[in-house]
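Researcher: Structure prediction, please.
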Amino acid sequence: MTMENYTSVSLENYRQREIKVRGLAVNILGLAILLVLMPLFGFIFYQVWGSLGSLSALDMRLEMPSISQMVYIIYSSLLGIFIIFAVLLTYEIITGIYWSKYTEVKLKVTYGASFFRYCHCKEVIKIKPYIVGKIIPVIIIGVIPSIAGIIFGYIFVSMFGVLFIANGTDAFLTMYQLRKESKNSWVRDMDTTIGYIVYSPSE
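Model: Predicted structure follows.
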């Protein structure tokens, strides 16, 4: 890895531009993607397998006595919540690991402990690694499971993947906003708001 990937580069002759991201807009766009992809993948799954999968787990739960039924529902709900939060954390860790390859001080790639998890890069890195770092978890946790679920006949795996494709809305938005930037540009997350600062070479 060459030193040009690190933040030791001088940015004195670079133009600075702030790009702010509206959290509400991202959430609305993510919901729209979810509402489009879930029926679409459900339709594809049905065309491939002729049904939306087995309901044996649901049938088993309905045959249980009421107390066992409640325990099963509570256990399943808690397990589902745990899995979602674990995957959300993994989602950000993947981004952080990739970004850390292009940062000089590794500890400056930090992870938020608030309800809404995030990976925050406080150093400037080249624009391409920045975008790729945001897209990689969408592919690994979103695209691959959603396609694998259809191939192997697991509707819940496919829907799980779709959920995390929608969760990657900010990555798609970043790709769109930075699509015309020079490959020699640098980028850094803002410190106090959602968005990033782009440093472009002066012409």
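Model: The first strand starts at residue 14 and ends at 20.
Researcher: Thanks, that helps.
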